[in-house]
Amino acid sequence: MHHKTTIEPFRIKVVEQIRLTTEAERRQYLKQAQYNPFLLHSDEVIIDLLTDSGTSAMSANQWSAIMRGDESYAGAKSWLRMESVIKDLTGYPYILPTHQGRAAEHLLYSRIGGPGKVFISNTHFDTTRANIEFSGATAVDIPIEAGKHPEVYHPFKGNLDTEALEQLIEKHGAENVGAVILTVTNNSGGGQPVSMANAAAISEICRQHRILFILDACRIAENAYFIHQREEGYKEKNYRDIAKEMFSLADGCIMSAKKDGLVNMGGFLALKDLDLALKCRTVLIITEGYSTYGGLSGRDMEAIATGLEEVFEADYLNYRIKSTAYMGEKLREIGVPLIWPPGGHAIYVDAKAFYPHIPVEEFPGQALVCELYLKAGIRCCEIGSVMFGRYDEDGKLIPAAMELVRLAIPRRVYTQSHVDYVVETFRELEQERDRAHGYRITYEPPFLRHFTARFEPVL
Ligand code: F0G
Hints:
Number of helices: 16
Bound molecules: ligand F0G
Distance between the termini: 51 Å
CATH architecture of the largest domain: 3-Layer(aba) Sandwich
Mean pLDDT: 96
Radius of gyration: 22 Å
Strand content: 5-15%
CATH class of the largest domain: Alpha Beta
Largest sheet: 7 strands, mixed
CATH superfamily of the largest domain: Type I PLP-dependent aspartate aminotransferase-like (Major domain)
Strand order of the largest sheet: 2-8-7-6-5-3-4
């Protein structure tokens, strides 16, 4: 079996044309976008690796379910179906639909956050942190040590440091901890998986101290695949049962269905506790919509219900994780420095190591993002000092811990030849390393600057 290529386990029924631009055209487009790929138009892009969120290709079954979408305001059949699929998967009795993950975060963290509260996570995703901080609370990240070192191998680099967790609980007092949030897989830490043993240990600590334990479950199927592969005792279990076991350890979850829900829009909050669910439901009805649709149309809910079933299919998950690993392995073979081993949904390139001659003040990650676009029309995202850099009192840059570039892989969208094209592009960029130059910021907004900042080349 092992010598065979892992093929895409689907045939392509509908195609979306890619416009093949020239390098001269791209030079013009990137200049117009002021060297920020977020400002490019999508038809100026050949391979779009900006995010795996909301970019999945839906299946024929999802599209046919969409035709059955029941658009009734209250109690729609499509809602009952989505609710029953989620209840069955998570084991949680109270399900609150939302238009995407961050809306679910808002429902929960606006109710349990507030000044004086501390939230603890392996790593809070940006929107999670933003929702917590917006409530006046504090968010603390405690990944294990291996999670902070790109080159160190660990099978579960997404794990949370349970010793640090106990110390933090001691320091702040259990009553001040709003929740422990376990992000599976750990997106900001490289899409790395979390082990069942780690989730179980966190569950135990939270139970002892009566602290709420929430899973950020948007990539839980991908995480289940890694547990099956790497953790003792899970070889015989199917992916869905592994996910169910993980849900059973927590008190609730938030899920952006735009990832492992295999849809373009949607999400939910699911909880064990009725009182908490009722509190959040009030915010749901005020901000998202009535409790049987949240921000979703009936057809969206049908697509989510079907997507949550398809994502656990063994052939799908095998293809999904193997194709991400394929990109990582090929890039590593040609000497591209990466977070290792590859995670589930993306490859993270260490741009500081790739362009050692570009100082962090001139954003080596942004340089790589721009070079990938110019050379081949590949769009991806800087996760370094453009995204997380701060300034000190003298206006000097305090750089991020790492200068990464994320190549996020949309689900069921690109084939192996698209991935080979990305690898070839890196090979060309490696040969022309010395020609790459840094960038300086010419405009930046006060928050989330990576989305709208503008740049100019430092020549
Ligand atoms: N939690 C995690 C771990 C995420 O990766 C995301 C989104 C969210 C929550 C928020 O969900 O977008 O539906 O509101 N991540 C996307 C990304 C945006 O590109 O990684 P959302």
